[in-house]
Amino acid sequence: VIRPEPCGVCGSRIRFGKTAIKCCQCQLLLHTKCREQCPSLCVPRPHHHTWPREGVLADFAPSTPPLVPALVVQCVTEVETRGLTETGLYRVPGAEQLVREWKRKLLRTGGALPTLSSVTDIHVVCGVLKDFLRGLKEPLVTFSLHPAFLRAADIPDDAASDTALRHVVSKLPPANRDTLAFLMLHLLRVSQSPDCKMDVLNLSRVFGPTLVGHSSANPTPLAIMEDTPRQCKVVARLLSLPHSFWRGFVETEQENLVPI
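Request: output the structure for the sequence above.
Response:
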């Protein structure tokens, strides 16, 4: 090592002059002692060797579809592996310091940190995912489409509301659309776990502000007050859409295919 870089497994810096191992395919760099904890398959690398501290979702997405950031995939995989029996999943907060620390490690290594299984408290993993989504420069539904999502969710007729929401989802940037679909399928699985005690209403209250947010980066106090109940309504309506609709985005090999 000539230029000190963080280990992709443990996150600590590999010092100058030390021997390290680097994957010739995904460029994962790690201590020789961390080799045993290295994943057997390469994790898709984002556009940048290291992620920015903040950005829009596309800045963190891989270059091939489905365009879901590795951090989101890893957190969701870990939660579904050992968290679906936890009461209050996503509602119970994880330790703030650990959430910040793990989010920093994941961002520093471009989302390729394969040791989330070492995080004892699954609520910390949930916290990392929520904190990442909250830290984006704009919410998943984007500032420009925010009003359209609110209008679609406000339509009183369920069938008309569903049709309008499908149309607005198809207008999202590909990375936002794929990631939203991936998260909706995950949250539906959480809602169906009796042990979690997190139905669609509970999940929509937790994820409304995170996924829908506001129509600008600096909303007025009035806008915050008016948007909050409508944010939850949007997520609840999105979770009412059929699984097949969301699967069409994350299971297709064509980047811009919009299912009918």
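Strands lie at 5-6, 13-14, 20-22, 29-31.
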